[in-house]
Amino acid sequence: xxxxxxxxxxxxxxxxxxxxxxxxxxxxxxxxxxxxxxxxxxxxxxxxxxxxxxxxxxxxxxxxxxxxxxxxxxxxxxxxxxxxxxxxxxxxxxxxxxxxxxxxxxxxxxxxxxxxxxxxxxxxxxxxxxxxxxxxxxxxxxxxxxxxxxxxxxxxxxxxxxxxxxxxxxxxxxxxxxxxxxxxxxxxxxxxxxxxxxxxxxxxxxxxxxxxxxxxxxxxxxxxxxxxxxxxxxxxxxxxxxxxxxxxxxxxxxxxxxxxxxxxxxxxxxxxxxxxxxxxxxxxxxxxxxxxxxxxxxxxxxxxxxxxxxxxxxxxxxxx
Length: 320
What we know:
The protein is an alpha+beta fold. It contains eleven helices and 15 strands. The model has no long low-confidence stretch (mean pLDDT 92).
């Protein structure tokens, strides 16, 4: 008897199009000899659809054995859709609602990293737009320029900028508030090499199996911005050309953050490898799984076929 798996994709976030790609990859790769799939499209207003028709979530969810969440950004990665799945008792892969919320909230994630003893860039948190001018002046005095400015609760580097000087810093902060950011972080800019490490639970006999560290080389003159992630101009080397010591620390830190944020099943954490050590940046509780995404590349590097990985996620969801 086939297991019925619903794949959620789309969603009311700035990452709607990216989510469609992740969901399509899941639907195309779930082994059809074991699973019957349901393509569940969530539009930009949050309405659920299947087979081109709007359907109440509760009606769809009653038909499913398990759910794979292909959503990114708000609603998918901030714990909101997980609350709905939990309310209806549906098994699903990935972080629970609280873990997803913690990982998406960059300030809380950084505090967990500091509590766990990891290096993370110094920062200032701005909760209200009216504090922007005051904090911008403080930043110019306290931080070497440039600085990194990012929204507290969005993913895929959406809204992130690297700027220098009072006027550009203030403009970048105010722009994020104008676009609806729930808060803004201004971070120390760490010069080094970008890296990311995926974690998969209960794989190959390990409770937390670390995938190879990927080295990310953005185009000259850019950082690993939202545009650079999906333009095809960024080089991704797997395994990365890091020293053994750096590689071991990257994998250790990814495990530490998976535990510190209370995540489940799989995650991917981002770092900077600098002369002073490995700096934690953030964690993706639902990393992208499209053909352009980083986690499938690290799975391929250790000989794990993508369909096997998806089957593993469904097994983890059903074993809860």
